[in-house]
Hints:
Blueprint: E1 6-15, E2 18-28, E3 33-37, H1 44-51, E4 59-64, E5 67-68, H2 74-79, E6 82-84, H3 97-107, H4 113-123, H5 127-139, H6 155-168, E7 173-177, H7 185-200, E8 204-208, H8 212-218, E9 221-226, E10 229-234, H9 236-239, H10 243-250
Parallel strand pairs: 3-8, 3-9, 6-7, 7-8
Antiparallel strand pairs: 1-2, 1-4, 4-5, 9-10
Helix pairs in contact: 3-4, 3-5, 3-6, 5-6
Amino acid sequence: MQISSLRCERLKKSFDGIQALDGVSLQFAQSRITAIIGPNGAGKSTLLNVMTGFLKPDAGKCYVGDRETTLLAPHRIARLGLARTFQDLRLIFQVSAFDNVMMARANQHGETLLGALFRIAVAKEEAANREATLGLLDLVGLHEQIDEPAGKLSYGQQKLLSLACCLATEAKILWLDEPVAGVHPAMASKILALMRKLRDDGKLIVFIEHDISAVREVAESVVVMDHGRVKAQGAPEEVLGRHEVMEAYLA
Length: 251
Ligand code: ADP
Ligand code: MG
């Protein structure tokens, strides 16, 4: 299958006079892991929200492959193969890990919660759907937690579950918001290994991360943002080695 590419041109977005994005142009390469770093308020989350359709830019354009996505609704962009995770994970804590993944599969159609629940009831009857969901939970290492309510899982397991939900959309492009923040080192290694595996399977992965050691470990490309602008980009050893970049980052 052809892998989609992802890019944006001269994106601008301001909030009450604050320029959250001030002319951001980026192109993300296929089968690669790109990290987006930068101090708090740099515009990283705004970029993610604009590129996934959750916010509309004031100016500029976004593309998934050849398709312009600038004004498309989030579920339409998801259908083109771009999925995201949320910092607050957005799992449904009362239902099982299994049902959360089933729900994510239904959600890509842009349904209401009730519609998604109905679809799950129907879809659960289908062996192929069950198999696919079990396969995803197995992939992220949650095969023993399938029946556990998401709210009972550890924070690291919840992050893995949100990744499984993201994969449930069958997206070729994954945009992850701080995938290892707040988890213990063993769990972080597990998540980073999973990201590498997904990259090897041909996914294009972009992630926002504060943990520089995690960035060094998996990123093949790094983008540094500050004050709504791209300050530096390139190979990690080159970008992270530059004194002024680290100073801006730590400011
Ligand atoms: P980062 O994710 O890099 O920490 P953000 O994209 O969240 O940065 O924020 C960039 C700037 O835009 C910050 O100054 C932030 O306060 C502002 N901002 C972001 N979202 C909103 C919003 N919904 N309303 C008002 N200001 C916002
Ligand atoms: Mg943020």
